[in-house]
Design brief:
Strand content: 5-15%
Oligomer: single chain
Shape: elongated
Strand order of the largest sheet: 3-2-1-4-5-6
Largest sheet: 6 strands, parallel
Structural class: alpha/beta
Distance between the termini: 49 Å
Radius of gyration: 20 Å
């Protein structure tokens, strides 16, 4: 599936199915809107699935793994060897999100879309890491599009396997630098607002990280009105792959859940490429990274969880699953006012 074919497929979600779900909530024998945003989430998923008979039987976590050349600039605590180590630990259920996903019945799929080292992780590699964005574009435009298409096609594969919802995650040392750069350009906001300490930097190192990003934007001159140009010049293969996941979900009617700051940047890129894609995107938590809330605001989304998390990997997205499923149990199983023969609540 090409990028253009995918963009052509994306239509608004089914408003009638969503409205039927809202009416179902209003008929359930409990105070109106008393589950708040959880009711909204189930109704939104109904619109995505095109049916008020919402189901989330099969859940997937898609983790995009890639290395970033900008690590050469000393913007991280560790070198890129850690990317490969953690990526393999996903397979061995030795990472935070792998443990959580195993507990919650979310099937984990990790993909190498651009790691320097080969590992046991499934290879969808476009290149062995991006180039150093401080010295020129991170990747070519063709590499960017190919990686987006990789993410799109992964979603279509998962749909064929019967998955009902996809959560997103990433692994790539240096990717808070790339996501801060992309986020700053796409939103037009200062680098200072968009940049945090990532996995842990000193105050001095943070100042350096911000300067590297500012200099790269000056050097590469990404076109804010062309998301592909921005991703190619300032992004990473992991962000591009996740952009494809969000677009793929919109094209084939599968809800896709944002994790934290990095995947929210990918969601914004997808939204910029196809505004209708927002109908298919769900938030999870608000990252503790400085721009976490700002990115959700740019998407017009409001988080479900506020836990001061900033781990990445998909931890926040996966954590949302049992909460949504509990709401869905109420939606599917609870009696209506008519069932128990009492007067329905009415809006006042």
């Amino acid at each position: 599936m090409t990028l253009q074919e995918t963009l052509d497929m994306i239509k608004p979600a089914d408003a009638e199915a969503r409205e039927r779900a809202v009416k179902r909530w209003d008929a359930i024998a409990k105070p109106l809107h008393s589950l708040g945003k959880l009711e909204d989430a189930v109704a939104k998923i109904a619109g995505i699935q095109g049916s008020d008979r919402v189901k989330l039987d099969k859940k997937a976590l898609v983790i995009m793994c890639a290395d970033n050349g900008v690590v050469e600039e000393g913007v991280t605590q560790t070198d890129n060897s850690v990317t490969a180590i953690v990526a393999e630990n996903f397979l061995d259920k030795k990472t935070s999100v792998a443990v959580m996903a195993d507990k919650l019945g979310v099937d984990l799929f990790a993909y190498d879309v651009g790691m320097v080292r080969d590992t046991r992780v499934e290879k969808r590699k476009v290149a062995c890491g991006t180039k150093n964005l401080a010295k020129g574009p991170a990747m070519t435009r063709d590499e960017c599009i190919k990686t987006i298409e990789t993410g799109i096609n992964i979603v279509f594969e998962l749909k064929e396997k019967g998955y009902d919802i996809i959560t997103t995650g990433e692994m790539g040392i240096g990717n808070t630098t790339t996501s801060s750069a992309v986020g700053a350009v796409l939103t037009g906001q200062p680098v200072e607002i968009m940049t945090g300490k990532g996995s842990g930097l000193t105050d001095e190192a943070l100042i350096h990280k911000k300067q590297v990003i500012r200099d790269s934007i000056t050097l590469n001159k990404p076109d804010r009105n062309d998301p592909i140009d921005v991703l190619a010049k300032e992004g990473g293969f992991d962000i591009c792959g996740l952009t494809g996941v969000f677009l793929g979900g919109a094209a084939c009617g599968i809800p896709v859940v944002i994790d934290g700051f990095i995947s929210s940047v990918a969601a914004l890129a997808a939204y910029k490429l196809s505004p209708k894609a927002i109908d298919y995107i769900l938030p999870s938590h608000v990252s503790k990274e400085p721009a976490g809330k700002f990115m959700l605001d740019a998407l017009g989304l409001n988080q479900f969880l506020t836990c001061d998390m900033c781990l990445g990997e998909g931890t926040g997205a996966v954590m949302l699953m049992p909460i949504i499923e509990c709401a869905l149990e109420v939606y599917n199983r609870m009696s209506t006012f008519e069932d128990i023969e009492i007067d329905a609540y009415v809006p006042l």
